[in-house]
Specification:
Length: 388
């Protein structure tokens, strides 16, 4: 049973769009063929995968062959970072990587893995507003740099990075540029030409598609050591029987997200602004984390000094409200958020922070209810905390 009445954790995952589920259903039932089989059922599955690739390529403004389907954002990030780095090493070329200190762990842990194998990594720190300056990326580039990897939008504070400017710098230095666009998918333009990216990760469950399916865009001629050995699927780039229903669902979800993007974003942003304005006004000593304007339209990350983020979440949960105190992947661990640390927040502000991320089904009434609850709860929790 799910007792959540108000879901405000769309950065963790989104509900599957019923229209996407409808589109996927035939491939989970009667249209079950293996896309590699040559008879009719196999050709039917192959046609669905081909249609999906072509549909997604239109949104990304790329060639269909530049898309590699994966099991999600984590695999795509691993493939991009390890694949490009290892190819470079095997050619006797550079083994230095430039990334940022507030990437998702799929990138950070891949970089740390490579460090253990003798690669070197520079972790560029974002500014206090959660934006990485292109100049700091350029300063970090060395003669032996083989990859630059910078996320499009941060998963905790939603801040949007100057990707085209960084892309231009990487291009000028002749270095492949990877972008983790997992949080940007379904919210920001994914045009790989305008963004000047060479590799880009996406995950379907962030834009009302199914979980466990994603993609890596790889620009033609980008040097990469493919990681998944097995069959000849994905043009010999990623072995394994295709997740036909998932891939089809991702394509339908992505094209639906980009059909009415501006109108949906405007609606969500209006609700988000109402949430931030009301909380900052009605709850004393509350502060927004991350730049106010250059951020995803659905993200509010707020610190309540003197309260504990986990306790706030438990209180919200008891009222049927789902939110997060960092990225979902670190929930349950007591580690302070590496993102909030990277932007230089003091520990009390980190400890009292929560992330509220809106989605297309949230209503103004829900936002008002959450604001009212925070207004009532935070002072109570502060008093409890002070007594301890
Ligand atoms: N990158 C970012 C920025 C994310 O927010 C996430 C998931 O939260 C991932 C990568 C991992 O994606 P997936 O859940 O599809 O493995």
């Amino acid at each position: 049973m799910n007792d959540t009445r108000i879901y405000l954790d769309h950065a963790a995952t989104t509900p599957l769009d019923p229209a996407v589920l409808d589109a996927m259903m035939p491939f989970l039932t009667e249209r079950f063929g293996n896309a590699s089989s040559i008879y009719a059922a196999g050709r039917d599955a192959r046609a669905a995968v081909d249609w999906s690739r072509a549909t997604i390529a239109k949104v990304l403004n790329c060639h269909a062959r530049e898309i590699v389907f994966t099991s999600g954002g984590t695999e795509s990030d691993n493939l991009a970072v390890k694949g490009v780095a290892w190819w470079s090493r095997l050619q006797g070329r550079g083994t230095h990587i430039v990334t940022t200190a507030f990437e998702h762990h799929a990138v950070l842990h891949s970089a740390a893995f490579l460090e253990r194998q003798g690669f070197t990594v520079t972790y560029v720190r974002p500014g206090s507003s959660g934006i990485v300056s292109p100049e700091s990326i350029e300063r970090a580039i060395q003669t032996d740099t083989c990859l630059v990897s910078v996320m499009y939008a941060n998963n905790e504070i939603g801040t949007i990075q100057p990707i085209p400017v960084i892309g231009e710098i990487a291009r000028r230095h002749g270095i492949p540029f990877h972008v983790d666009a997992v949080q940007a998918g379904g919210a920001l333009s994914l045009d790989v030409e305008a963004l000047k990216v060479d590799l880009m990760s996406l995950s379907a469950h962030k834009f009302y598609g199914p979980k466990g399916v994603g993609l890596l865009y790889v620009r033609r001629q980008t040097p990469i050591l493919w990681q998944q050995s097995g069959g000849a699927q994905e043009n010999n780039h990623r072995g394994g029987t295709e997740n036909v229903a998932g891939i089809y669902g991702m394509a339908v979800a992505l094209s639906r997200a980009y059909q009415d993007l501006d109108r949906n974003n405007a609606r969500i942003q209006t609700l988000r602004e109402r949430l931030i304005d009301e909380v900052l006004e009605r709850v004393p000593s509350s502060q927004l984390n991350g730049d106010r304007t250059s951020r995803l339209p659905n993200n509010a990350n707020i610190s309540f000094d003197g309260a504990d983020g986990e306790t706030i979440l438990l209180n919200l949960d008891m009222e049927g409200i789902a939110a997060s105190s960092g990225s979902a992947c670190t929930t349950g661990s007591t580690e302070p958020s590496h993102v909030l640390q990277a932007i230089g927040l003091p520990s009390n502000r980190i400890a009292g922070s929560i992330r509220l991320t809106l989605g297309k089904d949230n209503t103004p009434e829900q936002i008002d209810e959450v604001v009212g609850l925070l207004e009532a709860t935070i002072p109570r929790l502060r008093k409890l905390g002070a007594r301890r």
